[in-house]
Amino acid sequence: MKFTNEQLQMMISNESVGDIYPYETKDADQIEKHLKDLFYNFNRSKLLTCEAMFDHYGSGYASYVDYFCYRKDGGSVLNEKYIEKDSLTSTEIEGLVIYVSRLAPVAIIWNDQRYKAKIDTETIKDEYFSGFTMLSDPRGVITEPPNDMKDEFREIKQKLEQAGYTILEKGYLEQPLPFKAKIETFTRPSQYKIFDAIFYWKD
To answer: 40-49 long-range contacts, Cβ below 8 Å, gap at least 24?
Structure first.
């Protein structure tokens, strides 16, 4: 899938594009519901556990939902340690991150290592990710599966396609943005790429 300049400009302005449901409705609530249905579908997998950030990283506006999927059998755990003074277990997990756009029926996949914290005391029981990377450059996008997650990668692609999403190629996302724009991202205006018009976080 490739976008026209007009469509890219619309996405920069937080306007949805696309001619398939629910994006053609331009109804943010329907799109968000579709993205949550995708989350539930990911977690029906026998191979994967998926986490998702629907809250725009706690502030601002993210043009996408961040899904982090890893092996259900524990094979994605790189390290785990217990911090007694905080009653906290910190687990380092390697997995696949899927950015699924709120503004168009497109997605990208990349690798990341994230830290999951679990607190278990008499008064507090909580789990959250305490460390992760946000992709700000298309060079990290992958189209081939990691050796240890081939089946999981294949299933993610299948579920995305069934939900109507196109997985964008890195080569397309790396192309310079063909017009002048101002996007509140980490990238300088002279270096904007098509990636920046589609996947951005404005704080």
So the answer is: 41/159, 41/162, 41/163, 42/67, 42/69, 42/156, 42/159, 45/72, 45/152, 45/155, 45/159, 46/72, 47/71, 47/72, 47/73, 47/151, 47/152, 47/155, 48/72, 48/152, 48/155, 48/156
Say what the pLDDT of residue 117 is: 82
Please report, for the chain, the start and end positions of each structural domain, with discontinuous segments joined by +: 5-198
pLDDT tens track for 46-73: 999 999 999 988 888 999 999 999 999 9
> For residue 85, is pLDDT > 90?
no
Secondary structure letter of residue 178 according to DSSP: S
Task: Give pTM, 2 decimals.
Answer: 0.91
